[in-house]
Amino acid sequence: MGQEVQCVCRSPHGEGLGTVQLEAECVLFRGPFRLKIPFAELSNVMAVDGALTLTHKDESISFELGVKAEAWANKILNPPTLLDKLGIKVGVSVAMVGSFEEAFVSAVPQAGPEPKGGSVDQLYLLAADLGDIAGLDEQMTKVAPRGCIWIVYAKGGAEPTEQQVLDAGRGAGLTDVKVCRFSETHTALKFVRRRG
Predict the structure, then answer these.
(1) Does domain 82-193 fall into CATH 3.40.50.720?
(2) In which residue ranges of the chain is CATH 2.30.29.30 found?
C-alpha cells in the first residue's frame, strides 16, 4: 500500500503532528512519538468525521486524515490478497516455473506448468539458486508481448540476492516495475520488457 499522510495523532502516548503510513500489514506513525500498529492486533477500526480511530490493545488511537479516513479504514478492514497484489485475476493466464508451495499453486486455478507453444500473461519463476535466473531471455519467450515475469526469491541474503535478481533482469533487457512481499520467507520482483 505504502500511502503516507501528515496528520495529527491522538493516543495515550501523546498528541502531535507527524507522518502516518499505511503499509500492507500495519499503520506506522512517526512524530513526537512512534507507533507501529499491526492490523492483526486491531480490535476495532472506525472512520468518523475525517478521523481514523484504531483500537489497539484496548487503547484508542486517532489519526486526523480528513477525506482519506474512510478509504484507509476500508483498506485496513479489507487488505488486498497476494493475488490482488500480483495482478492475478480472471482472464489472466499464468504459468509457474519451479516448485512453488501448494497453497499458492492451488490459489491460482488458471495456472499451468511451463507453457508449451503459446505464451502467458504472467510467468512466475522460483529462483532457488543463481542458475534459475541465468536464462531469463529464454523464459521471456514464453511471455506475451505485454506480459510480465515475476521472479520469486528467498529473503535474508541467500543467493540469489535482490541485487543479483535485479542485475539478471536488467541484463536480459527487462525493467523492474514492482516489488511484492510474496510470503514470510520470499519476495517477488516484477519485470516487463524494456520499451523504446
Answers:
(1) no
(2) 3-77
Give the residue-averaged pLDDT of 72-100. Answer: 90
CA distances from 16 to 52, 106, 167 (A): 15, 46, 43
> Residue 84 and residue 34: Cα distance in Å, rounded?
30
- Are the CB atoms for 150 and 127 separated by under 8 Å? no
- Per the DSSP assignment, residues forming a β-bridge with 122 are 94, 148
Q: What is the pLDDT of residue 157?
A: 79
| 26-35, 46-55, 85-94, 148-157: least confidently modelled range | 85-94
- Which top CATH class is 3-77? mainly beta
What is the distance between the alpha carbons of residues 8 and 31, in angstroms, rounded to a whole number?
A: 9
pLDDT tens digits, one per residue of 22-38: 988 899 999 999 999 99
- Proportion of the chain in helix, strand, coil states, percent, rounded to 5: 25, 45, 30
The model's pTM:
0.72
**Cα-based angle 161, 188, 30 (whole degrees, multiple of 5):** 90
- What lies within 8 Å, CB to CB, of 190 at 6+ separation is 148, 149, 150, 176, 177, 178, 179, 180
Measured CA distances, 100 to 37, 108, 161, 176 (Å): 31, 11, 18, 21
Whether residue 160 is preceded by a cis peptide bond, meaning omega within 30 degrees of 0, is yes
